[in-house]
Amino acid sequence: MPDLEHALDALTGRVSSLREARTAYPADLAQTLDAALAELDTAVELLAEAREQLRKGGKRAAGKKDGTQRELKLLRQVFRAFPVPVIVLDGGGVVRRINPETSRMLGSPDGYLVGRSFPLLVDVSRRAAFRSHLTSVLQTGQPSAFETRLAHQGRTHTVQVALTRLTMPGEPQQMVAAVALPTEVQLPEPGARRPEQSDGALLIAAAKRQDLLVKMGTLLLDEQALLRPVAMARATRLLAAEWADWVIADLVRGGLPRRSVVVGPKDHPVGELVRQVEAADPGASQVVLQVLERGSGVVQEMVDDETMLGFCSEGPVLTAMGAGSLVCVPIGAGDGALTLVRAHDKQPFTLADLAVLQEVGLQLGLAVRAQSSYQSRSRAADALSASVAPRNLPDVPGYEAAAVYHPGSSVGAEFYDVFPVSKGCGFALGGAAGKGEEAASVSAMVRGGLRVLSVWESDPDLVMRKVNEALVAQGTGMFVMAVAGFVRGREIRMSSAGHHPAVLLQPDGSVRYAAGGGVPLGIAPEAETCVETLTVSSGETLVLYSEGLISSRNDRGEPYGEERLADVLGRCAGQAPSTVVKAVESDRNAFSGGQVWDEIVVFALRGV
């Protein structure tokens, strides 16, 4: 086909001249565009001529099959050497053939787009129009031309597309040739390497992935990520800022995926779309279900199916997003799925991105589980703390009462309580020897026992002994130091089981310690307690305190001690109980530099 080859060479020269004209005169594109459209018509005629010669060659005798094969080979060479981007599409818009010029323009490897949906390269606002043009060309056989934008591999081109119906030998269905001539983008020089393939770009990309892992690890290990449910929101914001246009986190709750977080682009208004994506059911997303079922991530450098993330009121979610590439990875071990979407004018996700994001998903899953476990333990600790201290002090007839309670650095075991008894009021204070949830639960049991048994017993010592019997019978192996007292009028009868002695503060500032003593509860079946009855007159203040107060230490390792407590109390003569407990609290903080290791309880009862 010498004439065809000559015509092809001439077309190549003219297209080259048009490119130079567009570069030299960017402000005057009208004439250049008209000439380019004329050349498109010429290209279509050349393709038609080649097709006609091929059809004639098919009618030759069987002995001339070698000639037909040579013509087919020539036609392939013509297609590959065509100086403008040409794509052969089937009736559904799927790419069946693509010439090197198209691959060069779009920045993709040869053959990369074969088998993929061409409309996904078209600007979202023009996809419906493109499909209409495609259908019209197939049905009527009349060529069609229109302007649109193509985006792929981070490159965006405004192009004039001409569609022509083809009938290709060996193909059961009719095809469409799409010729795309860029009108606004300077094409890269022939043979130029793709930017993402350069050594420097590869090194920068690797450093960026490593930086993401470091940032994500720092973010998820922050204490606030355990104290409050912020890990997922912070992680998705980080990914959206540096790695994707859209980030969606779906967490499994009750065996089903539930949408947790949606972060959209910030460079254009998408508030309504964000709400629609938030409301979409992740159970209808085939990519999310696939990742959860297989336990491994998937990456689509070019989105093939726009429905894979489900639908919203505007149609497929990915269509509304303008999605070009997508990656979805598991969160933890079946805890959920993390989906990242980039627009089709951005660099697509790669297998290297998939690997680093799978690591991010694993870290995020561990953080979510740690947060859940921590908060569960925190709630349990709060419940235990609530079970060892009253929310509010009840009124004690004839007295003013006040207390301070500071939890320690871990779940502790100190308790105090004030409760009604027959013809008066009762109080209790103490703590199990030990730390942690078990010690706290034992303290809660003793506190509850003292309160309940005080309903039936008139003597705090009988109450203390029965609680001792119950504690020994439980076999916890723990012992509890405690003091309980019944207030009736001006008399306070107290029973001590290994607890620190109470302090009676006189109006003149003098301090007298009660007897205290006894053996802690839970050591022997027969309790050994110390019983004492005190008279608290108007203006006198009875102060009880925990082991954590006396054993507090300063930076030299010295204990706070009962002598320092007596000095502080002596300076509080005549003060209200609330002032007394705050003075003790403030002095202890100054002594220990504000550090609190064990629980601190101070309870004051002043006669009025």
UniProtKB/TrEMBL annotation:
Keywords for this protein: Hydrolase
Organism of origin: Nonomuraea turkmeniaca
SUPFAM superfamilies on file: GAF domain-like, PYP-like sensor domain (PAS domain)
A single MF term (Gene Ontology): phosphatase activity
Transmembrane portions of the chain: none
Superkingdom, taxonomy of origin: Bacteria
PAS domain boundaries: 71-141
Entries under Gene3D superfamilies matching the protein: 3.30.450.40, PAS domain, PPM-type phosphatase domain
Protein name: PAS domain S-box protein
Pfam families: GAF (PF01590), PAS_4 (PF08448), SpoIIE (PF07228)
